[in-house]
Task: structure prediction
Amino acid sequence: MKNVALHSLGCKVNRYETDVMGQKLQESGYNIVPFDEKADVYIINTCSVTAIADHKSRQMLHRAKKKNPEAVVVACGCYVETDPEGAKLNENIDIIVGNNRKADIVSILNLYFENQGSAIDKCLDGYSVTDINDPGQKYEKMELDKMPGHTRAYIKIQDGCNQFCTYCIIPYARGRIRSREQEDIVNEVKLLADNGCKEIVLTGIHISSYGLDRGESQLLSLLQELNAIEKIERIRLSSLEPRIITKEMAEGMAALEKVCPHFHLSLQSGSNDTLKRMNRHYTAEEYAKSVELLRKVYELPAITTDVIVGFPGETEDTYEESRAFLEKINFYEMHVFKYSPRKGTVAAKMEDQLTDKEKTRRSNILLNMTKDQSKAYRESFIGKQEKILWEDYETIDGKKYLIGLTTRYIRVAAPEDELHISGACPGHISDHLIKSFLRDDTLLI
Ligand code: SF4
Result:
């Protein structure tokens, strides 16, 4: 029996795929060991969203080979798609597995071991990679049936992206949009629910495109089917495009009691001039309309977002326009990113690149803003009853607490020495009165 260690970098989609690869390897007789242990095979599901992510991917590959020079090191995913020549020349890599080939990890390893010492190349003469940008690519079937010890599962529903935002390399690494069969998703979720999963997070590279490759959006009909699965108690959505939030979509979701009122609507900038040069297909006004629709059908929905500061050509005026827009929308949380040029993207070649000092100045202003906005949002739940999915224990300032999340993704703590009173229990959802802050990012029952 060979020992295999897996490591996932980057997004929730990679996380899901790594879990599926682990499950398939275990089912076919491999022994899964933690990544910091010595293994016969190391599998790194790489990320390439930024130059730093590329660097981290190469670092993990190096660490694996250093840990056991005899081991077979497998590099999967986005880094090998965006830098295939670099991957081929990388001495730490024995096998290259492209996106859309991960489900065959077992047969790929078998073929490698059968041909060890022969002239077969790192892509196993083309067996372990595909032309990811071939529009004829189909969705790569994968299924998880258990999530040991987890109450929440990430569920991959689609792959690929057709948006081509000018700062983003992902469409070149993940290819064109491909939606998973709705029936397969429902079956997977039913299996996971039977194995104790309470909450699912629908994820993908661009879930707002779910179904569009089959003619029309099918996200709402998928949510309706998942909402009917008895043992599932919560459905959460990962990042959404603001354009998908129509009146019909907002009202349709609000009618589904298990859909969490937590929406990550990726904005990137509050300036229309910048949005245009980012090739984002909406205006700030349209974005505000989507938020308004959600605030009409939900009480205090948790609206979170991503914002890039220092995009090439962002002037003091367009930055101020963006800042003022963010202040007006008043998000639960903003993830603030300083623009970093990504080789191979349109924006990396744009003029008027800003200094890092200026990007830092602009991002600090937004980081202070989101700190205040987040705290104010959390504060609005003090004195309210909230349903909390309790998960793991944590020690905070020397005292042990059970930590959970509300439907609006707010962290809540229950003192361990009072669990017999509060009734909070790991892996279960229960209703509690929110009493106060434990700290800025955590409330207390
Ligand atoms: S929507 Fe834009 S930012 Fe998101 S993966 Fe697609 S191209 Fe990248």
Q: What stands out?
A: The chain has 14 helices and 18 strands. The radius of gyration is 23 Å. The first strand starts at residue 3 and ends at 8.
